[in-house]
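RidA family protein structure dump, as promised
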Amino acid sequence: MSLIDHPTGGYRFLPGIAPYSCGVVAAPGFEIARVTLHRPAPYREGMERIRGVLEAEGRPASALCAVELRSPRPFGFEGFAEFNAGYARILEDWGVFVDGINPVARTNVAPEVAPPREPALYAFSYARPGGDEAGPPTFVVAGAGELPEGVLEAGAIVRAEETGPGAILEKARFVMGLMEARLRGLGAGWEGVTAVDLYTIHPVAPLLPGVVLGPIGPAAEHGVRWFYSRPPIRGIEFEMDLRGVRSELRIG
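structure tokens r here:
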């Protein structure tokens, strides 16, 4: 994978599949900032809130570079494709796409407890002027579960239909490999990671010492956040995402 410059967004991206990119990194002179909604909003309403934030900062819609969604329950593969088509259409209409490619990174998970009634926007990230030339680049690595890069097929799920401790361990190791590859593809390293998020309903304590915290080195000092949630597609059991940002804001 090679980084592609967004001509108007202020960031670069690693191309992924039609619904989202694999990750984004700020262009020189820019930083990526993250905004969390204190109360997630229905995602179409949430997309309009994103536009409001961008307009208030004098940034174009194309500055949007990452979206975090919450869904009522995991989708089947067909339902996931249908949802993605409508979601991608919004971004394309906004002029966010680059030569027909969706540059926006995404995480979409289904909370096991108190899920939303409909897909909701939880957080988003955007590029704005003001990067620290002396510091590490700011970036977002998109969420990924135990599927090979670029594949959305049930038969490709690692240890499909298995949820025993050994299977979860193997799934987690596989996902960590994806995170590492995407991180390196963005030109970043673990030393620049400020947040590591885990999404699974399976126990994470057995995974932390050897599978997660050990390999991430300096990022381990920030800990990890465990969201008791399922990945967005039925049959996938473990998902992660990463980011390295200096600016985070929470709005009502």
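DSSP finds four helices and 13 strands in the chain.
lmk if u need the other ones
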